[in-house]
């Protein structure tokens, strides 16, 4: 699977940033909270993988790494646009993203390079399983404002395309032994227990600052029902989260490349969008 860097613009309608999801403002801000992590988080992934780039012998994996870096850089750029809209709407996008920046800079400074890579492959696993949930069920973003929906589908498709790249860098440079296995699984445990509470705090900060969200009744309950009930993107990802603990785990053990057929219709759809084309 060779990822392809695509330079796309989504031209999100700024006025809808707080309520672009059909399930309301709280669910919109759940996704917005994730969006705030992407630009600096993905820069951290690029940084972690780059340390090992010169140690990769296989030309195909080298090419995949270049494409991975290109894709993550594009994701960062488009999510930055979305995050800036939060500030324009009077929401604390910049300070929250500033926190992510400080956290990732701290991790770059204090963590050994191998731990930075183990955190990266863990977070790539989390994004890959969430991407799978999004692509699996059109109700996750399919009924949302179309520009935002396209941004999220595009990101999910490319996360699927490159889901094994960082992992393959790990496998090619770290070798297989019990200590590396332990470091890999500890990476997922640490990443999950730090990341999800932060997402909840970010969502809380956004909803508290948004008068429309404050007026929305039962928003948190609706978000929990959406994430863990129907359509349940997080509930459906739980099984795959555990797959990571198998000693011989590989991201493509779960072969979901059938969803990648969705890229062409998405590109055609973008092509036909005069708003996006004006970019
Ligand atoms: Fe990404
Ligand atoms: Fe990624």
From TrEMBL:
UniProt xrefs under Pfam families: Metal_hydrol (PF10118)
The entry's keywords: Hydrolase, Membrane, Transmembrane, Transmembrane helix
A GO term for molecular function: hydrolase activity
Signal peptide residue numbers: none
InterPro entries: UCP07580
Transmembrane region(s): 185-204
Domain of life: Bacteria
Name by which UniProt lists this protein: Metal-dependent hydrolase
Organism: Solimonas marina
């Amino acid at each position: 699977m060779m990822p392809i860097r695509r330079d796309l613009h989504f031209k999100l309608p700024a006025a809808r940033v707080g309520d672009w999801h059909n399930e309301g403002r709280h669910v919109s801000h759940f996704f917005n909270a994730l969006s705030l992590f992407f630009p600096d988080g993905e820069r951290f992934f690029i940084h972690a993988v780059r340390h090992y780039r010169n140690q990769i012998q296989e030309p195909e994996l080298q090419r995949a790494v270049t494409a991975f870096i290109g894709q993550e850089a594009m994701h960062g750029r488009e999510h930055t646009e979305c995050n800036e809209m939060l500030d324009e709407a009077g929401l604390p996008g910049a300070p929250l993203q500033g926190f992510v920046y400080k956290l990732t800079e701290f991790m770059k400074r204090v963590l050994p390079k191998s731990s930075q890579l183990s955190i990266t492959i863990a977070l790539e696993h989390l994004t890959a399983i969430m991407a799978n949930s999004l692509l699996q069920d059109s109700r996750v973003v399919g009924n949302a404002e179309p520009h935002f929906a396209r941004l999220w589908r595009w990101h999910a498709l490319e996360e699927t395309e490159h889901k094994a790249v960082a992992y393959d860098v790990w496998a090619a440079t770290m070798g297989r032994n019990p200590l590396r296995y332990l470091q890999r699984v500890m990476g997922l445990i640490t990443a999950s227990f730090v990341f999800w509470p932060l997402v909840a705090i970010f969502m809380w900060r956004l909803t508290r600052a948004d008068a429309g969200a404050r007026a929305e009744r039962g928003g948190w309950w609706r978000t929990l029902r959406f994430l863990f009930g129907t359509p349940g993107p997080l509930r459906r990802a739980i099984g795959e989260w555990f797959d990571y603990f198998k000693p011989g785990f590989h991201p493509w053990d779960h072969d979901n490349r059938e969803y990648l057929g969705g890229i062409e219709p998405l590109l055609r759809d973008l092509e036909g969008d005069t708003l996006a084309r004006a970019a």
